Amino acid sequence: MPMNPEIFAPPAADADAPINLIGMDRDDMAVVLAEMGEPRFRAEQLFKWVYGRGVSDFAQMTNIARPLQARLAEKFVIARPGIARDLASADGTHKWLLNLGDGNEVECVHIPESDRGTLCVSSQVGCTLNCRFCHTGTQRLVRNLGPTEIVGQIMLARDHLGEWPTAERRTIYERELSNIVMMGMGEPLYNFENVAKALKIVMDDAGIAISRRRITLSTAGVVPLIERCGKELGVNLAVSLHAVRDELRDEIVPINRKYPIAELLEACRNYPGLKNSRRITFEYVMLRDVNDTDADARELVRIIAGIPAKVNLIPFNPWPGAPYDRSSDERIEAFAEIVRNAGYPSPVRTPRGEDIMAACGQLKSDSERPRRAAAE
Fold first, then answer.
1. Which residues belong to the active site?
2. Contacts (Cβ under 8 Å, ≥6 apart) of 127
3. Which of 6, 93, 174, 374 has its CA 20 to 30 A from that of 119?
4. Domains of the chain
């Protein structure tokens, strides 16, 4: 289960290629500008243009002198991931298959709702967890994404939505992309350093400026990093629970064999900042005749007792070759009613983007990690 960061690290930048500013924080920008003989305040200006205005052309940076604009253009680029495939669902959901430049691809999804717009962001190419109900889990882990690739997904979505501030649109809050969920391909806590750096850039008030209260990180249960996530990022936590007994969770969420339910729930109880106004979300996929009985619902209520929480019930989203079926609407509602009667909000997630395989648990790209023999 542990990951070797050297094997799964993002590829090193080409020393002869221009440096991509996306993924750099203020300090990174200050360092590279200092190498050019520029003062610290230039980094502040550059940061605001890149992340606050979404500018990709140095010539548009009006408070930077033209000679410096030209020098910046020689050394740097402001490049989003390439779009390999662009799919729109009948329900308004949008999915991009993104080309990362090294032959690998990931997916990210924008889900518009009446009161918000949520972007589901990937953190890895593939996944190491092998959750049996998840299509992404059938794709072996290729590598981690770097901050450039994580932040780039968000910037590309804002490009698509036309949501960068302009003279006509001064506020950055009236927008269709208001929430970020780290629920795309991969386990974010197995790529914590890169995810943390990316989210700190996203939360910076001078840039993309999405509040930590509008960012949710989803984990299948990497217990040792849950506390660190709360202390360093303070974002909302979602836990992919999906079963209430270790023997079943061992089967459908194999990380449970390393970090069983009791350890996971103890980490949740101790999550920094946890209170009634900052609940943990427990994700629970509804699998017909597997985890959807009234007894399962009552046991769920028992084991999360005392944790400020809500329970998201997720109708299983089928994919080719899936070993499970979706619970009936009646069974899901009966399950939800037991949880609600115990005092826990229990919304049933409406499947979105099923016609383009963009629903929860359906994301997958064609990227494959080269076998060692082929690499040698």
1. 107, 360
2. 134, 136, 137, 139, 141, 185, 186, 187
3. 6
4. 19-77 (1.10.150.530), 82-371 (3.20.20.70)
